[in-house]
Amino acid sequence: MRLMPEDPRSALERLCVLHAEDFSSLSRLLGKNSAYIQQYLRRGTPKRLKEEERRILARYFGVPESLLGAPEGPPLGAEMIAVMRVPVSASAGSGSLPGDERSRPYFAFDERWLQRMTSANADDLVIIRVEGDSMAPTLGDGDDILIDRGDDAKRLRDGIYVLRIDEALIVKRVALNPVTRRVTLQSDNPAYPDWPDLKLDAVNCIGRVIWAARKVA
């Protein structure tokens, strides 16, 4: 006996129960007024969800879009965002000279996970490798770090950045003095000295470090 497919409204309501989600929260997730999902489920308005709304809800619940009324298509999870890796290192020591900076695909991230991590455009993201231990224990030698190149000197604030100084790439913690607008470059490893009271124009900011991956020994 062939089973009839579940009605999209019934499927969505069942998902809400299973995940203990309320209708108003899902409505806000779609950028709609708080009664949008309730009206869709109880009053049939709108008659069907828009394609973008189905896509957002399907990814949120981790189900195929077809369950929510979309035509059958590729399996959910096929959408991965490739982030390029630049084959140079940012030194957490004395400074690593850039070499061949041609990029190639290196990591692929689930689109939904990446959107939770950052609002940056994928074209502004790049992965490079850390050399040295001056940022230990936060960053270690050999760690891969994800950099948002759109978050550069124009938005500079306290945090960990990749910088270019005298043609060398370094990764340091930046501490910005809000009064003097001068910066101190700090090493998380106390065995290494800080570089205090630098002018902003002495620091060429490549981008902010927003994520790191390392091998567990």
> CATH H-level name of the largest domain... which superfamily?
Umud Fragment, subunit A
Can you tell me the CATH class of the largest domain? Mainly Beta
Unreliable stretches: 73-78, 94-103
From the N-terminal CA to the C-terminal CA, the straight-line distance is 53 Å
Briefly note the structural class of the backbone. Answer: alpha+beta
Order of helices and strands: HHHHEEHEEEEEEE
Biggest β-sheet description = 9 strands, mixed
Cα-atom radius of gyration = 23 Å
Number of domains: 2
Number of helices: 5
Query: How do the strands line up in the largest sheet?
Result: 2-1-3-4-9-5-6-7-8
Calculate the mean pLDDT score and round it: 81
Question: Looking at the structure, what is the overall shape?
Answer: elongated
How many β strands by DSSP?
9
What's the assembly state of these chains?
Answer: single chain
Q: How much β-strand is present in the residues?
A: 25-35%
**What's the architecture of the largest domain in CATH terms?**
Ribbon
| CATH fold node name of the largest domain | Umud Fragment, subunit A
| Helical fraction | 10-25%
Can you lay out the helices and strands and say which pair or pack?
Layout: H1 8-18, H2 23-29, H3 36-42, H4 51-61, E1 80-91, E2 104-110, H5 111-117, E3 125-131, E4 144-148, E5 159-165, E6 168-176, E7 182-186, E8 195-199, E9 204-213
Parallel strand pairs: 1-3
Antiparallel strand pairs: 1-2, 3-4, 4-9, 5-6, 5-9, 6-7, 7-8
